[in-house]
Amino acid sequence: MNKRIDIASLIRPELLDIKAYSSARDEFSTEEEMIFLDANENPFNTKLNRYPDPYQSKLKSRISELKNVDSKNIVLGNGSDEIIDLLIRLFCVPYTDKIMTFPPTYGMYKVTADLNAIGIQEVLLDENFQLKVDEILERITKETKLIFFCSPNNPSGNTLYREDVIRILHQFDGIVVIDEAYSDFSTESSFSELVEDYNNLVVMQTFSKAYGLAGARLGMCFTNPFIVDYLNKIKPPYNVNSLSQNIALEKLSSIEKVESQIKSIISERIKLEGDLKHIDWITHIYPSQANFLLVKVDDANKRYKQFLDHRIVVRNRTTQPNCENCLRFTIGTPEENSTFLETIKTF
Ligand SMILES: *Cc1c(COP(=O)(O)O)cnc(C)c1O
User: Fold this and answer.
1) Is residue 1 part of a domain?
2) What's the CA angle centered on 115, arms 125 and 216, to 5 degrees?
3) Which of 17, 34, 61, 338 has the fewest CB neighbours in a 10 Å radius?
4) What is the per-residue pLDDT across 167-178, written as a single tens digit (0 to 9) for each?
5) Mean pLDDT of 61-83
6) Ligand 1 centre distance from Cα of residue 279 (Å)
7) Which residues approach ligand 1 with their CB closer than 6 A?
8) Ligand 1 pocket mutation, candidates 183, 184, 208, criterion most atoms within 8 A of CB
């Protein structure tokens, strides 16, 4: 399969000819042995006196090996949240264009659309938290510029059926974004392997979940070089600071540690799923491919407060569509999970 649409025709017209801010570190990287008198930095070394690499080339080349995606297909952001914002601002004309999302899902798509005066078309997931493909295809209009899939989905935990996503990827001549924040916990393969095949595909991942770097704010975006170029033009020049770039490189140099944490989290999730089946006020446990479990309980508000009384914070999702009386539990350390389970048994 090889889908090629005219991406330029989707970009906001006023951004087509935008010239990126040309930063000093754009022209000369501090990797080279030179005397740097170009960026008005303080010359005395504090490890942070120089501006960071605006294109994070070292980090991208490590990510490239790890994810099997070419560096020219990668954009890094100040969290995936920044990538969501950049995509909306690149493609959507305020007060005119729309994004499409599938609740219950990650809240930042809507917040970011609202913030940018972009409309939102919501097509609820079905009762198994899968896509209603026919309804989605019917609802698409020429103002629909971006579709945000989340797989594994937050807060439900399941992956979307691959053939459903592919069907829409084929039929929709706008940009399809797949948010894979939890893909490291999933047995499904990443859609990143398809970015060469579909030039309207954007895949997002993050260092915030499996990699244990939520505080560093580092999100990844995999897409075709044309979109990469435009994202680079509109992003703040130094959007990923040196501390975050370095700590991510450090993390990637001991990837076995991350892998063993992921294994532990998955096996704890499976164990907890089994244990929760014996709790009579938990009426349903949704299948999860993520580092959390969504469960239906008898009374979410009551149980939520009960947890808080025991100094345990969970996420109450009861107001979300199809999530009535649902709580979301993140998988903790083995010690935290056993305390959690012991506490639940006392309710
Ligand atoms: C946690 C999460 C993110 C992470 O965003 P960052 O800005 O990279 O921390 C993105 N998408 C979803 C669905 C999430 O749950």
Assistant:
1) no
2) 85
3) 17
4) 999 999 999 999
5) 98
6) 30
7) 79-81, 106, 150, 154, 179, 181, 206, 208-209, 214, 219
8) 208
